[in-house]
Amino acid sequence: MINKLVEKIKKTKAPIVVGLDPMLSYVPKHIIQKSYEAYGETLKGAADAVWQFNKGIIDHVYDLIPAVKPQIALYEQLGVEGMQVFQKTIDYCHEKDLVVIGDVKRGDIGSTSAAYATAHLGKVTVGSRKYSAFNEDFATVNPYFGIDGVQPFLDVCKQEQKGLFILVKTSNPSSGEFQDRLIDGRPLYEYVGEKVAEWGAQHMGEDYSYIGAVVGATYPQAGKMMRKVMPKTLILVPGYGAQGGKGADLVHYFNEDGLGAIVNSSRGIIAAYKQEQYARFSPENYADASRQAVLDMIADINGALQEAK
Amino acid sequence: MINKLVEKIKKTKAPIVVGLDPMLSYVPKHIIQKSYEAYGETLKGAADAVWQFNKGIIDHVYDLIPAVKPQIALYEQLGVEGMQVFQKTIDYCHEKDLVVIGDVKRGDIGSTSAAYATAHLGKVTVGSRKYSAFNEDFATVNPYFGIDGVQPFLDVCKQEQKGLFILVKTSNPSSGEFQDRLIDGRPLYEYVGEKVAEWGAQHMGEDYSYIGAVVGATYPQAGKMMRKVMPKTLILVPGYGAQGGKGADLVHYFNEDGLGAIVNSSRGIIAAYKQEQYARFSPENYADASRQAVLDMIADINGALQEAK
Known about the structure:
Two copies of one chain form a homodimer.
Chain A: H1 2-12, E1 16-18, H2 29-39, H3 43-61, E2 67-68, H4 72-76, H5 79-95, E3 99-106, H6 110-120, E4 124-126, E5 129-131, E6 138-141, H7 147-160, E7 163-169, H8 176-179, E8 182-183, E9 186-187, H9 188-201, E10 211-215, H10 220-229, E11 235-237, E12 261-265, H11 267-270, H12 286-308
Parallel strand pairs in A: 1-2, 1-12, 2-3, 3-6, 6-7, 7-10, 10-11, 11-12
Antiparallel strand pairs in A: 4-5, 8-9
C-alpha cells in the first residue's frame, strides 16, 4: 500500500491528503435540512448529513489527490450511526481508488492493540469466514506503550500489505508538554522518531517504509530534524492551513526527490466555503470551494518545493 | 460519578473492576453455535455471541462489584455490529447500576479530543436535541498530546459529572520504552503523574478527584511512588491475574483508608472457566466460574490489605 500511495503522489503531483473530519457545523444547511426531513433530528439524521457532505467533497476532489484521512472521532460522536458512515465513507473512497488513512490514533497493550489492528487494517475470523471491520489502508498509532503496543499493528501491516503513521511530534500547541521533555539533552519525540525509523527499516516498501510518522506542520524545526533521523519514513504532516502551517514551512519535511511527506488539511478544505477567501462559493457549492482549496493547497506546496530547489 | 464509584467500592467492599474484554475465543461453544444458527457466521453473529456472553457474566457478578471496564477494541474489531454491542453492554450495565469505565484510551489534538469526549462521556447536539453516543461514566485517556489533548475531556467531565483515568504507567512489558525515559533523573511517567495530580486537584469529588490515573499492577514500585505523587487520585490498576499481578503486590497502590485504587481483571474473570483452577465449572457454567473468580479476587486483595495493616 505504501508503494501505491507513493505512486499516486507522483501521478497526481499532489503530496497532500484531505482530512474528512466532518464537524456538524461544517455541513451546509441545505444538506442538514434534507437529512433531518428524512430521518428527524436524530443521530441517524446527523450521520446521514455527514455522509452526504462527505460524498459531495469526495466526488469533487478524488481525481486531484492520492489519499484521504477520515478522523474517526467525528464519526464516533454520532455513535453507532456515525460508525456506519465512517465505514461507508471508507468504502466509497476505495471505489474512487483513494488511499484511506484511518486517523484513529489507537494504541494499547499487545493483545488489545492486536484487536485494534484487526479492526482497522486486518480481518477478524468468524467461524470459517473472515471479515474486515473498517478496512482502512493506513492507521495512525499512538506510541506511548512502546514496541509491544505497536508490534501487533506491524504484524497485521506485513500480512495485509498496509501501513501505519506513528505519532512522533503532534501539531497541537501543548504537544511539547511531554514530547519535548529532554532526555540526555534530546527531546522525547526524537527517541520516538528513532524507534519509528528502526521499526520502519524492517518494513520497507520499494522506496519508503510502510511504517510512517506523524510530525505536525506547526513545528518546522522538528520536521527538519526528523527528516534526517527518518530518511526512509513517509511523514504525515497535520496542521496545515487552519492550524497555521504554510507550504513554505514544510519544504524540509520532504526529501530532495520531492517525496517523503504528505500534508494533511481538514477544515481548510472541507469547510473552505466558510472562509473569506472562498466567499464566492455559496453553501450549495461547498464542494466546488473544496476543490478550489485543494488546487490552491497543491499550488502552495509545489510552489514552495520548487522555490527551495 | 467519582463519589458514586467510591461509595460503591465501600458498599461492596470490593476495590475491583471486571474487564469486559470479550475475545471470541473466550465465548463458550454453546453460545457461539446458537448465535451462528440465528445470524450465520457473520459479524452480526459474532457480535450477538459476545453480547450473550457479556450478559451472562454481568448477571452473575453485578451484585459483587462496583464497576466494569469494557475494552472497546474487542468490540471495534467486529465493526459496526460490534459497536452496537459495546453500546448495549454499557446500557445493560447501567440498568444493573454498575459504574462503567470505557477503556478507550483516546487522545488527540484539542478539537478532536472534544469529539472523543462527546462520543464517550458527553452529548452531541443534533438540531434542537441532544444525544449521548456511548455514555460511559469514565473513560481512559492517553496523555501523549499534553494538556490541550486532555482539556476537552476535563471540560466534559465537569459538565456531565463524569471522570477519567489518564495513562501514567501502563502494565505491558515494553511500557518502559518511553514511559521510563529519565528526565532530570526521573522517569517520564512521574512527570505525567504529577500533571495528573495537578489536573485532578482542580477537579475534586468528595474524597477523590474525578481525574484518576492508570498504573499497571506489573510495576509495584511505580505504584508505590505514584501513590505518594498523586494522593487524591484514584488509581485504576490493570494487569492483575492473567498479566501477572497479585494482591500482595498491590497494597501500596492503596491509601491507608483502604481506598484509592481499583484493580481490574479481564481474562482472569471472564475466561475463568478455561483455567485449571476453575476446571470444575463446565463451559455451560462459565458465568458461575466468573462469579467464583470475582469472589477469589476480592478475597485476595482484601486479604493482602488486611495483612499490610
